[in-house]
Amino acid sequence: MKNVGKVTTLFISVQGSSTRIEKELFNLDPKGIIEDKYYDTNINRSVLLTSEASYALASKHNITFPFGSLGENILMDYNPYHLIPGDKLRIGEAILEISQNCTMCDHLSKIDENLPTLLKDDRGIFAKVIEGGMIKKGDEITLLS
């Protein structure tokens, strides 16, 4: 077990809105983030983890956009893109298991036509909830495996 970083910002999606809502904390159970509109839709895609490094990479190429634009639920100062399915993280009270890399979606090209190519391997990574609990801004991220 090793502390690898911290949660910097949390976001959820809500019914009827295309913008992400920033939260101070949220609660998770094995079906996902309880307040999120995608709760209980696909447990392998329950939580999208994104690194601040993705925003920094875009910024180096003169593409800037607000946090939350990549669709993340948890923005962190740790880069998780080297993790593989089955790896586990403790974030706050919850334990998440990496399930799959995030696929590119059309909305990224609306931000900038070069963004999908630029962030091909650096957009985010999905996790499923193994053990529920509260996650809040500033929580430590611990690599369990």
TrEMBL record:
Q: Which residues form the MOSC domain?
A: 19-144
Q: Coiled coil: which residue ranges?
A: none
Q: Kindly indicate where the leader peptide sits in this chain.
A: none
One family name in Pfam for this protein = MOSC
> Cross-referenced Gene3D superfamilies, in alphabetical order?
PK beta-barrel domain-like
Protein name as it appears in the record: MOSC domain-containing protein
Taxonomic lineage from the root: Bacteria, Pseudomonadati, Campylobacterota, Epsilonproteobacteria, Campylobacterales
